Automatic annotation (TrEMBL):
AMP binds at K397, G398, S399, T400, T401, G430. SUPFAM superfamilies: Ribokinase-like, YjeF N-terminal domain-like. It catalyses: (6R)-NADPHX = (6S)-NADPHX; (6S)-NADPHX + ADP = AMP + phosphate + NADPH + H(+); (6R)-NADHX = (6S)-NADHX; (6S)-NADHX + ADP = AMP + phosphate + NADH + H(+). Catalyzes the dehydration of the S-form of NAD(P)HX at the expense of ADP, which is converted to AMP. Together with NAD(P)HX epimerase, which catalyzes the epimerization of the S- and R-forms, the enzyme allows the repair of both epimers of NAD(P)HX, a damaged form of NAD(P)H that is a result of enzymatic or heat-dependent hydration. This is Bifunctional NAD(P)H-hydrate repair enzyme. K(+) binds at N59, D130, S166. It comes from Streptomyces plumbiresistens. Homotetramer. It comes from the Bacteria. Its cofactor is K(+); Mg(2+). In the C-terminal section; belongs to the NnrD/CARKD family. Belongs to the NnrD/CARKD family. (6S)-NADPHX binds at residues 58-62, 134-140, 163, 261, 315, 360, 431. The keyword GTP-binding does not apply.
Amino acid sequence: MRTAYSVETVRTAERELMARLPDGALMQRAAAGLAAACADLVGRVYGSRVVLLVGSGDNGGDALYAGARLARRGAGVTAVLLAPERTHAGGLAALRRAGGGVAPSRQADGIPAFLRAAADLIDRADLVLDGIVGIGAKGPLRPDAAPLAALASRARAAVVAVDLPSGVDPDTGEVDGEAIRADLTVTFGTHKPGLLVDPGREYAGSVRLVDIGLSLPGEAAVEALQHADVARLLPVPGAESDKYRRGVVGIAAGSARYPGAAVLAVSGALRGGAGAVRYVGPAADAVIARFPETLVSDRGPRKAGRVQAWVVGPGAGDDASAVAEVLAADVPVLIDADGLRLADVDAVRGRDAPTLMTPHAGEAAALLGVAREEVERARLDSVRELAGRYGATVLLKGSTTLVAGPGGGAAAAVRVNATGTSWLATAGSGDVLSGLTGSLLAAGLSAVDAGSVGAYLHGLAGRLAADGAPVGAHDVAAALPLAWRDVVRG
Ligand SMILES: NC(=O)C1=CN([C@@H]2O[C@H](COP(=O)(O)OP(=O)(O)OC[C@H]3O[C@@H](n4cnc5c(N)ncnc54)[C@H](O)[C@@H]3O)[C@@H](O)[C@H]2O)[C@@H](O)CC1
Ligand SMILES: [K+]
C-alpha cells in the first residue's frame, strides 16, 4: 500500500524525530537522498549546469544542501534566491563553500535584471531544482515566485521538485494558478496527498520517496492500493463454491434507448468474480444475444430473485421505479449514471446495507450543486463531501479515481487509484466499471474495497487493452481477465 499523510501528521512526526537527532541531521538525510536522485536523473553530474530555485524556508534549505553536494561532484550550480535575507543560512554557506554561485537578486538588482538572469540560467540549465516551497505552502504561489515556475515549466532542462512541486497544495493536490511541472519529485518521509491526487499528481511527474526515518501513525490521509494489496482482496472460489456461494450480482440497467449500457455493465459483471449475473430491464434480448450465460428477467428488481448485490443506473433513462426498488433491497447497491440523478437522498441515507455511488466529475457536480470545474479543482474535498451528504461510499471517477468511505470525514483514508489511463475516457467505459464493481460487491468485498479494486482492475485492463491505441469499452471488458491475471501473478 502506498500511503500519504497530511502536513499536520508529517510535522508531528518530524518534531518527534528531530528531538532525538542532532541539529540539521534530518535535512542532511533529505539533501543526500535528493542529490542522489538528481545524479541518477542527469546521469553525468560533472560538468552539468544546475539551477536552484530557492524560497525562504527549509524547502530551499534542502535544495541548497543538495546543490552543494552536486557542486562537490563537479556540477556548475547557481542559486536563484527569492528572499536573500531569509534564505536558509547553513544551506547557502554550504553551497558557497562547495563553489556554487548566486544569481542577481530582485532586492539588490531589480525585478527585470532578476528575471532576465533567472530566465537565462534556466534556459542553459541541464537540471532545475524547485526548492521554492514545500509543506509550508499557503495558498497559490506568490507573485514573485510564479514567474520562476512558468520559466521552469517551459525549460528544456529536467525539473526536480523538492518534496513537492511548488504551487501544488500538499494536502489536497489543488493547483490555483502557476505551479512547477516536474519530471521527478523527490519527497521526504512519506508521500503527501497532493502528490497522489490530480491535478497535483500530474505536476509531480514520477515520484521518489526518500526515507528519513519518520515513524507515522496507522491511519493515512490517502492510500493507493498496489498489485499485492489487490491480489489479497480478489475473491477466489473455494472447493465448495457454487455459483450462488460465489455471489449473484443483479444488473438493473439499460433502456430501449440505451440497450448497450446494459450489455456493457453485464460484460464487466461477468468478469468481476460473482458466480452469476442476473439482468433485469428492457434490454434482455440484447444482453442474451451477447452473453447467453446471463439470467434475465423482466419483472423488475423486487421480483427478480435473490442477488447478493445490485447495480442500478447505467443507461436507465428515467426509470425511477427500478432505482427505488433496488434501494429498498437489503443488499449492497451500486448506483451509477442515471441512477445517481434518480436516487432519493433520504432513501440512500436510510439504507442499512452498504451503498456505493460512482459519479464522474459532472455527475458529482450536479449532486453537489456546483460547477464541474469546482469538482475537478477540489477532487478530495468533493468526494468526502458527497460521501458525507449521502452517508454512502463514493467513487469519484477521473484520471485519479478516488474512493471515500461513508463517514466522509478526514478521519478515514481516501483511496486513490493510479492505474487509470486517458484511453479509458471512452463511451461505455463507466458501464463496464459499474458491472465489474457490483460483481465484486456480490462476491463479498466491502464497498470501499470493491470500489478501489474495481477501479484498479478497470484501469489496468484499459492500459492492457489500449497499449497506446484507442479502444472501445467492450475491449476494456474483454481485457479484465488479463488484468486480473497480471495482479495475481504479481
Ligand atoms: N521539518 C523537517 O524536519 C524537515 C523538513 N524538510 C523540508 O522542509 C520543508 C518544510 O520547510 P518549512 O516549514 O520551512 O516550509 P517551506 O520551506 O515549505 O515553506 C515556507 C516558506 O515558504 C513561503 N511560502 C509559503 N507559502 C508560499 C507560497 N504560496 N508561495 C511562495 N512562498 C510561500 C513562506 O513565507 C516560508 O518562508 C519540507 O517541505 C521539506 O522540503 C526536510 O529537510 C526534511 C526535514
Ligand atoms: K518544492
